[in-house]
Amino acid sequence: MFSSAVNIMIDFINVSKVYNGTDVKALDDVNLHIDKGEFVFIVGSSGAGKSTFLKTIIREEVPTSGEIIFDGESLNLMKPRKVPYYRRKLGIVFQDFRLIQTKTVYDNVAFAMHVIGAPQKDISRRVAYALSLVGLSAKAKSYPNQLSGGEQQRVALARALVNEADVIIADEPTGNIDPEMSKDIVDLLEQINLNRGTTIIMVTHEVELISKYNKRVIEIKNGHIISDTAHPEVFENAEAANEAAANTPSGYYHAPTEDAEIEKFLMNYGNEAQPDSETAQEDA
Fold first, then answer.
1. What proportions of the chain, in percent to the nearest 5, are helix, strand and coil?
2. pTM attached to this predicted model
């Protein structure tokens, strides 16, 4: 039912990022190409630059130098009014689910379509299909607090899929669920990647988990890409990175499930341009 992803390619060209008030490069001269239909794991210890890497793709941050090209368009030069439309090409899966507790499973997934003004007939059809893909058709009328952690993450994945995203960006999607459920989530992402050609970019610290998959793995350390390989066993200090990351909060949004404004956040995130974290660009 969902169409195949278009020819989305992502290029990082000499990308560096320095936050205001610091002299530390969160990203340091990163050069990287991610092709349409790739499945890529991003690994590294806390503070390595993984979060900044994701933020620049989502266009929450703009590089200090260098350029990011997404499907032929420069994210550096993108005007704020275009950002929400760009984000609709992305399906974003958060570590902590970001489900609206007062809405059913069906309504949580449908919410992503309501905020962009999709016709009701399309909403009914595509939500039903997205829930079937993640194996939750029977839970459509349930509420998040009636679901296991793994089931809640499946709802979040269905929400990321429902607008036919070309790229799914998953930030530690297995961070709050048990190991068995973790594999189920990655299996689902793999299925989506293989069946739809959707590009998957997944940040994780779980080296043992990704070693079960024959996927491209990029390791970031101190803002640099130090490894780009299909063989997880060659990671530099992989076990040390795994241990350090496991003991440190890795998501770049903090405690969203405790935020009373979660519904407002989700609505604005997909429907309104938010100002850049540094000097906002003029929308001229």
1. 40, 20, 40
2. 0.80
